[in-house]
Design brief:
With 242 residues, this protein is of the alpha/beta class. It is 48% helix and 14% strand. Strand 5 (104-109), helix 6 and strand 6 (130-135) form a beta-alpha-beta unit. The structure holds uridine-5'-diphosphate (UDP).
Amino acid sequence: MRTTVDILGVPVDNVTMNEAVEIVESFLEKNKIHFVFTPNAEIMMAAQRDDQLKNILSSADLVVPDGAGVVLASKILKPVLKEKVAGFDLTHNLFYKFSNKNVNFFFLGGKPGVAEQARQKLLEKNININVVGIRDGYFSSDKDDEIINQINSSCTDILLVGLGAPKQEKWIYNNSNKLNVKVCIGVGGTFDGIAGIVKRAPSFFCNNGLEWLYRLYKEPRRFVRMLDLPKFILVVIAKKLR
Ligand code: UDP
């Protein structure tokens, strides 16, 4: 039985990182496709303006809070989510869990060469997962069927889709009938992070809910997008007061 917390119409699973890893592991034993999404405050705010995105997030089998903003929202709305489960960390923990195991990953997304570089970095860290296919994320929709055939014919178990939000959520949802995989996870810029192209915030920022500040410093062009963070908290407070 899932325990979720309703955050502005999106059910977010109240799980720890370890529980999230176990849930994904349990999906591998079932004969159906599962969606895992990792919304942060920006995506939750985008879902307030985009009903299709809200429905897609709500249809997922596992939704984990990627950022401190979503956990803060649960502190206001109650019940409080157990912890932040960042998509980047969840993906890494799955790699550790399935290193040297018979679980097939497919990497879809990122600029050409980035996901290959990410795979190389994993090998350098002795993380030895089965990567059965890699495709960059810059393709037109007329290539969808060819990509899906490649995914299906490579016996993929876990498809990691890093096309950025909400593109990745919509791509997974719209193609779910054709995909023959056990788990699809929207991983945002995870391949960039693993490849070392985008530096992750130092632990001080992550541990104090300030990863957004570090990201803003590194990528100031995200400023307008990041205004959604305070807006999200204001909408949450307004909901609480109502
Ligand atoms: N990306 C992609 N195809 C696109 C647009 C973006 O593969 O058409 C990739 C981009 O190269 C980057 C990721 O999607 O690796 C987006 O990263 P970001 O950190 O912006 O993710 P978000 O915060 O939007 O989830």
